[in-house]
Specification:
single chain; 14 helices; binds beta-D-galactopyranose; eight-stranded parallel β-barrel; alpha/beta; about 15% strand
Amino acid sequence: MAYRDLEFPENFLWGSAAAAHQTEGGNFNNWTEWEKIPSKIKDGSNSSIACDHYNRYEDDFDLAKKLGHQVHRFSIAWSRLEPEQGKWDESEIDHYRSVLQALVDRDIQPMVTLHHFTEPVWFRDLGSWLNPKSPEIFAPYCRKVAEAYSDFDIIWNTINEPMVVTTMGYVFGEFPPEEKDFGKGLTVAKHLLMAHGQAATQVRQVYDEIGREQPQIAPVISVSHFMPADSENDDDLELVDYLDELYNHVWIRGAIEGILPEPAGDGSRYPPLDNSVDFIGLNYYSRMVVSSELDFMAGDMPPKDPELERCEGLDWEVYPEGYYQVLQSFGKKYDKPIFLTENGIGTSDDEVRQRYIINHLQEVHRAIQDGVEVLGYLVWSLTDNFEWAQGFSSHFGLVEVDYETLERKPRESAYMFKGIIEQNALTEDIQEKYLLD
Ligand code: GAL
């Protein structure tokens, strides 16, 4: 196959993403408590010391720098900063100052996520996101973070993947608190939307109060490309439209339009959402094929395509074309730029990762050519880490972590990605080298 150089826009930003609970170690939150229950984590592990990133962040950022990264996305652990409601741990606030400073020292742009799946245990005990007051309970923490770090040049992410928190935690019951109740899921989605609004409002207010220019703020959503099991079956097509709307669009449209949309809300305005989305943070991993003849809500799915490569453990099908499709649909529906805040694959075979990244970037480039405004691309993840219910059994890192010694070793894909960043292009040479072997 003949390849050509695929150049990315000037000022396009490249880097990687991670999250506190998955890398830091030593956390105490709703997940650490849940992990103690036998059989919850597939490989029998728990997050425990994870990658010890809490102590090794400088080394990890040295690696990110060496690998050419321009942006690093990470999350702050709410449970560290506010171990009891309304009580702040100043040493933990200082810790993240050092983390931010370490990025700045290496000329890496920090992108900070306020909520990435985990919560303080006291918040869980108040009913977590089912509590009608949860958005207001979340707000002071957001204000504290904004006050503490507003002197840094930060790109802000409010909530990571609200629909994953909703579906995995409250509809399919595979994450804590293991609820299986569609109605509760809707309530949680609504409260997470309000929480996003509260977070953006707090950050904006703090910047206004100190007279600083407003930063870029975005929620980060997980997007799947839904496809019908039978493209001639009207019921399948209808199901695809329904799920695409419910999973991919309702929430973000609410954030952009400033309303609490049906079916989660009643369509009323929620003023804290006003001006809460500067860009859309978009995470894409895979497609989802659905059939109207199966009970989707019970988790029944058609058989997977044996021809496609899969993500280790999670079993997601590799489907780069879906990236183009979702980018097209987001580009058309919303007048907002998109930052690709996560994309990657869990695999022990680095050649699979190399192909995955290249094939997905080809689709990103195609979408950009066709008019979609994309600001940057972050690989999930810098290092291998604790992959939630999969434990340590799914390897998403550009950098391998030896969990015995905690030694880090960049994989070939990390150097390949470095080459892409340096050229700001997916060159013909890179495509030939990594796709034709
Ligand atoms: C996302 C999540 C990340 C990471 C990734 C790979 O849903 O934001 O924390 O685990 O998936 O599964």
